[in-house]
Amino acid sequence: MYRITYGSTMKLFGSSGIRGKFGDLITPEFMCGVGQAVGAQYGSVVVGWDTRTTSPLLARAALAGLASAGSNACSAGMVSTPTLANATGEFKAGMMITASHNPPSDNGVKLWNPDGSSFGQEPMEKIEKMVLGERIKPAPWDGVGELSSIDWAIDRHMDMITGRIGPLKAKVVLDCGNGAASTITPHLLRRLGCEVIILNAEPDGSFPGRGSEPTEENTRPLAKRVVDSGAVIGLAHDGDADRVVAVDEKGNYAGGDTLLPLLCKLEGKSKVVVPVNASMAVDRFVGKVQVIRCRVGDVYLSEKIKETGADFGGEPSGTWVFPKVSYCPDGIYAAARLVQIASEKPLSERLAELPRFITVRKRLDMPPNLREKAMSRVSDALKALSPVETSDLDGMRAVFSDGWVLFRPSGTEPKLKIVVEAESKKAADRLLKTALRIGKEALE
Asked: Is residue 77 part of a domain?
């Protein structure tokens, strides 16, 4: 079992909170320590959890840690991540026990501010230092925090969304993926007036219906049901429902890469924020709207939206941030908004208007101890190819005359992620072949 060595210099937070295998990094002892660190700084904290089998246990450990540090700790129960973030508006901070789309053996935690944004770099580093530093002294016997619970988080989240999206008369197929979306999205869409056909709505942390990530392969049953039922759209959430992707009325998969330029166009008035791994289709499609790039990860997406006053931000993963409602990626609000968009005009027709490029994503195993050396080798190899432009904002991105390549260490897994996008399949194949060679040589 994993034990923290106090004074350790290891890094806990990735681009989307802390994640790891249960029983390794993520244990009740560890989560209690995170709760103590958060509780020592914030007077009242709300805790929610997803459907993973280990989540209730870890949530109780977090609640115990919070109270032992003197914080008033409140349980919101099993909820989606955006529901928890929405409820955090009534507290000083929020803790969501989840590993999002990771395998069922994993778990983790994300920390939230009252405005719905993730903890930024400075507060994350402070928590990390406390967890890995000296043991946190508990509050005295008469200073421990109170433990309580709330039952209004889901209804309040639905009320917020229905107040912004009017009645909808549409047939929708919804795949909850056995995740936390099952607690809210079906009820929300029906409240809005939709006829909803539900798949994988039973909360189950082993994710028996499909993988926890709504990939094209995992959503094929959804696509078939959309076509067979004559629905206007199909929707699929990840494990904690901070993300959502779609299937159009013809059964075509519309993942984050596809939906991103469309949502940027529809939501953007003056500025939108996208990460360095986003398609150049965004720049081509949004017209005069300024496209601002940021590091990959919803933490950095929300930070950049707040910093620039952007109207919208999204990632190719299916993460959507609507700052008019929250700085948290809200897959629930996005689901309702996508139904609204598909009701006004067939989604297939909207997607046909988008510029098309060939995008390929690959992952290579990368031991953490090779990270710096591998990225240095990648940088040297890319620059030797005389690209038109390079950027080290997040990993290493090289732009060529007919496409671009990005190498980036994953913020949640021991992987080196490679993204290639090009004007044609021939160019994409050439760039991918080169990228894979560079990546494998860098990891030798």
From this structure: yes
Last residue of a domain, one of 128, 151, 174: 151
> Do 147 and 54 have their domain in common?
yes
Greatest alpha-carbon span in the chain: 70
pLDDT at 54: 98
In three-state secondary structure terms, 147 is strand
CA distance 88 to 51: 20
Pairing of strands 195-199, 171-175: parallel
Sheet holding 415-422, edge to edge: 358-365, 415-422, 403-409, 396-400, 389-391
Residue-wise pLDDT for 180-221, tens only, equals: 999 999 999 999 999 999 999 999 999 999 999 999 999 999
Domain residue limits at 23: 18-151
Same domain, residue pair 74 and 197: no
Structural domains in the chain (count):
3
Helix (H) or strand (E) holding 247: strand 244-248
Let me know: does 390 contact 398? Beta carbons within 8 Å: yes
pTM: 0.91
Report, as residue numbers or ranges, the catalytic residues.
100
Assigned token pair, 256: 């984050």
Cβ of 224: how many Cβ atoms within 10 Å? 14
